[in-house]
Amino acid sequence: MQETYSAGSSIVSQCTKCKISLDHTVVAMAGEVVAKVKCRTCGSTHKFRDPAAVKKPRVSRKKSTEPPASALWQACLAQARGKELVYAMTGRYRVGDILIHDKFGKGVVRKLAMNKCHVVFEDKERLMASAN
Ligand SMILES: [Zn+2]
Question: How far is the CA of 5 from the centre of ligand 1 (A)?
């Protein structure tokens, strides 16, 4: 059985002013339905809003199709089979080598290109000059 309310009953409603669920007093009924309530906290009269029916605002999670570089970097480091090498523009590298860059830190060679290699560092992937 549903609880029945009448003007003067106390009811918990979402307060449109306080933005939270609070004790309200029923002011007006529309048949069986509570129509208007008065907030006992701020005193404002507004439509009854069932707290259970009030949708919580969706937490918008930033969705990006690409994984963050640091996650990729960690995955690449974990899979890297190559040697740890100090990066130099004249170096020759292979996919999977770990490069130590004096500025960017540790990177992993992901792809080779003509005289360049794609290296994933913790913050982002960079195209580095090499002797490949
Ligand atoms: Zn209120």
Answer: 19
pLDDT in tens, 21-54: 999 999 999 998 999 999 999 999 999 999 888 6
Rounded to the nearest angstrom, the distance between the alpha carbon of 38 and the centre of ligand 1 is: 8
**pTM for the model:** 0.49
Contact 98, 106 (CB under 8 A): yes
- 112 burial level (CB within 10 Å; 0-12, 13-18, 19+): middle
Q: How far, in Å, from the CA of 54 to the mean position of ligand 1?
A: 15
What pLDDT digit, counting tens, does each position of 49-81 carry?
998 886 666 666 666 566 677 888 999 999 988
Q: Cα(22) to centroid of ligand 1, in Å?
A: 7
Question: For the segment 116-130, what is each residue's pLDDT rounded down to a tens digit?
Answer: 999 999 999 999 999
Q: How far is the CA of 1 from the centre of ligand 1 (A)?
A: 28
| Residue 13 CA to ligand 1 centre (angstroms) | 9
Q: Which of 49, 107, 50, 113 is nearest to 82 (CA)?
A: 107
Task: Return the structure tokens found at 114.
Answer: 């003509």
